[in-house]
């Protein structure tokens, strides 16, 4: 359909012999599909992510919009093992008591106060009725 499509990047007509299609309905000039953050060309050789009509490379999309560790604020990679406490997610090495620094392991009792994790020794027994 060259000549009929409008580029989602520049808004111009795509009359080139080739176009790039992202998601079912967005088409781009090959030269216009770039990461909105770093400018890396996004073609058939790399993964493209869309958010609010802008295209991003995988690294920038993860950095800007991905879930981040509640302790170190770094993004997670797909191979990271994580620990969860309520709606907070942590790298395994970041899942530590804020008072004594002891790493908390699966099965350990802990308390979450604000964003601070506290081991049982540092938060004491639960209040009566809790």
Automatic annotation (TrEMBL):
Pfam families found in the cross-reference section: LIM
Keywords of the record: Developmental protein, LIM domain, Metal-binding, Zinc
GO molecular function: cis-regulatory region sequence-specific DNA binding; DNA-binding transcription factor activity, RNA polymerase II-specific; metal ion binding
Domain LIM zinc-binding as annotated: residue spans: 5-67, 68-129
CDD domains (UniProt xref): LIM1_Isl
GO cellular component, one term: nucleus
Highest taxon above the source species: Eukaryota
PROSITE patterns the record matches: LIM_DOMAIN_1, LIM_DOMAIN_2
Cellular location(s): Nucleus
GO biological process: axonogenesis; neuron fate specification; positive regulation of transcription by RNA polymerase II
Record-linked SUPFAM superfamilies: Glucocorticoid receptor-like (DNA-binding domain)
UniProt main location, coarse: nucleus
This protein's name: ISL2 protein
Taxonomic path: Eukaryota, Metazoa, Chordata, Craniata, Vertebrata
């Amino acid at each position: 359909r060259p000549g009929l499509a409008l580029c989602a990047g520049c808004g111009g007509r795509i009359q080139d012999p080739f176009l790039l299609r992202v998601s079912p309905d967005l088409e781009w000039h090959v030269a216009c599909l770039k990461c909105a953050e770093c400018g890396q060309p996004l073609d058939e050789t790399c993964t493209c992510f869309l958010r609010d009509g802008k295209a991003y490379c995988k690294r920038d999309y993860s950095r800007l919009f991905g879930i981040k560790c509640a302790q170190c604020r770094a993004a997670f990679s797909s191979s990271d093992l994580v620990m969860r406490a309520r709606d907070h997610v942590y790298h395994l090495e970041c899942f530590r008591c804020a008072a004594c620094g002891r790493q908390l392991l699966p099965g350990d009792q802990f308390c979450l106060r604000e964003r601070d994790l506290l081991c049982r020794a540092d938060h004491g027994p639960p209040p009566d009725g809790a």
